[in-house]
Design brief:
By secondary structure, this protein is an alpha/beta fold. The protein has 9 helices and 12 strands. The chain folds into 2 domains: 210 residues, Rossmann fold; 100 residues, no CATH class. The chain has a 7-stranded antiparallel beta sheet, with no helix packed on it.
């Protein structure tokens, strides 16, 4: 096999991650790449490809309406797609996830294509993957089993799409689907990328990169904590659709804080590494602002004490009172 696949592990809904991915894809596009693989259902990507060729954003608007409140529906995800259409118009998007939104977007897609077509057959199978996944969750079958089945489906879908093209590809996926070591997905031993490598064997060329390892801060600013000024690196906003208290969080890493925060007591409140767009190291301190309607409603301070679980390092909230 001579085709190359460059896979990037991201966190979803991150401002800085989407900006970096836009830069990465434009660089690959300018060097001749055209096939972009994404953590999307097959039918969702098919709608995006129709939108890419359209003269307005009505298709994208409908997709956004159906996906309201989901992890991939942030303003940054939308901006990323708009940049693709504007700067990389010949991009072909391949969706290789299970059939999320199978009863809305999936149903609409089946109604838009011939029942005798290959597109219909693939979409129908993709919908069944999604239905099985969500029904299993509702029946409390068990997170590890459900997610393992999803990884298997994602690998099969990826292989189908990769085999259908005769050129190299770039893929953007959640980091748990690309990296199994240190960043877990319910403790699954083999994720999508592991299964893909096993399928193609030693001759396969899959280059994997963790996005948070190549991301630089958006800017630096000064933050005052406990009457002391600190330089803070801002890693932008992250979408929090499942949090009733806020819509986004804005993340700052406090630089050169030394042991200033080690003496404060800890709260029973944690943020795992998989929700940070930047790398997390022991003794790192973060200021996390909660945002609603574009305004800051609170600020919390978190520290990495070196503890970890299947999702990577853990940061614990500090009691500053």
């Amino acid at each position: 096999m001579t085709k190359k696949a460059y896979l990037y592990g991201e966190i979803h809904g991150s401002e800085i991650t989407n900006k970096k991915e836009s830069e990465i894809w434009q660089d690959f596009y300018n060097s001749g790449f055209r096939h972009l693989f994404m953590e999307l259902p097959y039918f969702y990507a098919q709608f995006l490809n129709l939108w890419m060729k359209s003269g307005d954003d009505s298709i994208l608007d409908e997709l956004w309406k159906n996906g309201e409140g989901t992890a991939g529906n942030s303003v940054f995800d939308r901006e990323f797609l708009l940049n693709i259409k504007k700067f990389c118009p010949e991009t072909v998007i391949h969706g290789t996830d299970i059939g999320h939104a199978y009863d809305t977007t999936g149903k609409r897609y089946l109604e838009s294509v011939s029942p005798d077509s290959e597109e219909y057959r693939i979409a129908e199978k993709n919908i069944e993957q999604g239905r099985k996944y969500y029904e299993a969750w509702q029946e409390n079958v068990g997170g590890d089993y459900i997610e393992a089945d999803r990884e298997n489906c994602m690998a099969k879908n990826f292989i189908r799409e990769f085999d259908s093209v005769d050129a190299g590809i770039v893929g953007f996926y959640g980091e748990a689907h690309v990296f199994s070591a240190g960043i877990g997905n319910f403790g699954i031993r083999e994720n999508m990328c592991d299964k893909i490598r096993k399928h193609y064997g030693e001759n396969a060329f899959f280059a994997a990169e963790l996005m948070k390892n190549i991301i630089e801060p958006l800017y630096k600013t000064e933050i005052t904590l406990c009457e002391k000024n600190y330089i803070a690196s801002c890693f932008g906003d992250v979408y929090t659709p499942f949090d009733d208290e806020c819509e986004y969080i804005r993340i700052f890493r406090i630089e050169k804080s030394g042991t200033d925060f080690s003496r404060y007591p800890r709260k029973e409140n944690f943020i795992p590494e998989m929700l940070y767009p930047c790398a997390i190291n022991k003794n790192d301190v973060f200021a996390v602002d909660s945002l609603k309607n574009g305004e800051k409603i609170s600020r919390q301070i978190f520290i990495c004490d070196g503890f970890s679980d299947e999702f990577g390092n853990i940061t614990t909230e500090i009691c500053m009172e």
